[in-house]
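Q: Can I see a sequence and its folded structure?
A: Here is a first one.
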Amino acid sequence: MHSAPEKQKQPSLLTGPFLRILLIHLTAMGSFGVYYFLPRFVRFTGGDEFMIGLVMGAPATAALLFRLPTGGWVDRLGRRRMVITGLALFTVANFLPVFAGGAGIFLILVRAASGASMIIYFTAIVTYVAEKAPEGRRSEAIALYGAAGFVAQAVSPWMCEQLLNVLPFEQMVRFRIVFALAGIFTLVALVISLPMEHDDNHEEQHLDPDPWYRVLRSPSLIYILIPSVAFGIGYTSIFSFITDFTEMHSLGPSSFFFISYSVTVVFLRLSTGRLLDRMDRRMVTVASLLVIVVGLLLASAPGGAASLVLVGILTGTGHSYIFPALSTLTFDSSSARNRGTSMALYMLGFDVSTMAMSPLLGKVAEHWDYFVMFRVAAWMLLAGTLIYLTGWRFHSAAAIRRSAAGISAGAGRCH
């Protein structure tokens, strides 16, 4: 543990530049929340569960193609530059669904373009935040930055649902107006990002980053991919289908889930985010995955609005801890010149599982129902957690120590 004098010397996270990052992420993720209503749009225009899975899985497919080169771009061209580039492309991609006539190849391609640009932004911004964070507060910084996005995800779906219900236009026009909001949100984020601080210099500035396949040889990174894949299964089973699920089974407004999920994440990250810099993040990851399993099993049982809120609380609890824990562990396990690539590889596991599982789980729901689908997702997530437990011995002990509390600033870097 740090001594009391050391704690007093720690700089505040809530600086002007960090508050700018929070505002950027708040608006960028406000656009992301709009697309939770794409399943309703697909069904309204004649699509089925499988088409919903294809549309919702398209961003992950694009992420699979762009994640690896994006990591190299972040390391070579800089974190700040790629944040702005990603937001510019994301803005264009987010305006395109306004012109979609229904479920089909255009909508799938548009969602893929949105996913590719989101990957550029997201990989760059996470690496940027981790690099700018004070020593010993990296997980807390990532947790707070992520919390800003969840504030947007609590408000944005509610706002979109209200607009879809009350706008005095035909349903197709209502969808177009809601989709236009996504472009407006990211345009605001782009404008705010332009005065961002430039990247920090690091000790390996003069070295070229390693190719991704060489970075992937690290046993620590392979180990981190396992919970990333498992988390992707749980995430896509909820977020790809929740709006359609609630409507089909008359469970009340889907915003009940989004608000409870997001409020849980924001509350836990604000109140307990600092603990993540003092705990063994392997234990945090296991506990997070198991809580999500419980949430999915609850979703698999018929219930009402109260049950929907509880599902949001449980799955939100898991999400609140697993992402900052894994992100910081990845950053601290990587050499300075490869941090963007390492972040990209770790998040690639999430992308792969989202891409593969979204249409597959859609098929399960189509042939049985959503209750069965949630049970299948829960058991798959549990299996992934057990596999993750067997791989603990492959993680570098030095990387675990660098991620633990009480380590000096000199030990907090990988040279």
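Q: Show me another, different protein.
A: A second, unrelated one:
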Amino acid sequence: MMPSERSTPKNFSQYPRVIALLTNPRNQRKVVAVAVVALASACTKAATPVKPPVTVSVATAEIGNAPYVVHANGLVEPAQSVAVQSQVGGVLTKVRFKEGDEVRAGQILFEIDPRPFKAALDQALAVQARDEANAAALQRDADRYASLVLKDFVTKSQADQTAGQAAAAKSLVAADRAQVENARFNFENATIAAPITGKTGVLFVKQGNLVKPGSNPPLVVINQIHPIDVHFTVPDRELPLVQKYSDGKKKLRVIVTPRGVASAEEGELNMLDNGVDTTTGTVTLKAQFLNAAGHLWPGQFVAVDVQVYVQENAVLVPTSSVQTGQDGQFVFIVTAEKTAVVRPVTAGLVVGDRTVIEKGIDAGMVVVTDGQSRLTPNAKVEVAQPAPAAKAARNPGGAP
């Protein structure tokens, strides 16, 4: 249909060339075709671009055991430590060990000049023998006077006097025996033995020096390192669990790792202090280790892990898969259709690089461990392939 003058805008008359084109019969077909194409293009909606799948890393939720571990810093200390000192004074004549040696309980370590002590012992023995002989004679006199007084050959006063002299002599012998024991003690302690089995340290007093009883520094310090102890502190909030699981025949398992040593040492908790330190809010614990290899050394700082209990048959996922949002914790699981679905979860213990999932997913489900920041609910995903293993390097000499 030709456009009428009534439908033409008032200002359309300003374009006579356009009017001429529209009113020309030869151009009407072209105008209609162009209008139809424009109308079809306007009615067609723009196609929504398809988003490419998001590349993610995944892992499978597994069933395993999850130990509840309390971490702390500990200090190694000897099970026993003895500062060896002399109990008598004299010249140190012999040292029968080398610094750093392992010694056994009862092993001779030092010898002090015994001659003064031997002389004192001999003198005490001689005095004792003299007084014992005198006491025996007086006792015989007392016995005779006791029988004579019954026959009125001697007076009662004479009999009592001889009995008193015999009793005094007997007491003197008892004092002599004490003197002998003291002299023998001094003589025996001129030879100093190791009181415990352990490792000796620095020798503070060399041979030829004069030693005195209770002198400082001691002759040497012996530390028992087989077994050895580690003491450490834990927050008082962990105390109820430690008390609960250590109150029984089975002791708690403790693992310590010294600095610079790859292998850890395993021992048992053997002491829980009887009070909480109010200044730090911590309680002191002590564990004992066999230390067969000698990795633990007195005064050494170690990392301590106390295994309080084990949660068995728990659902474990990599910790990196657990995310935290406004509504709590969640994970992305990958369905069989390669779609990422959000699952709210309740996370529990953290065991190394894995976390226990108390509720939300089951074992066998595939969870996203990397790439969550690019994901949206129900987004398509593509699982990243693991990187190929690098070829083994050749030997420096060039031989394969």
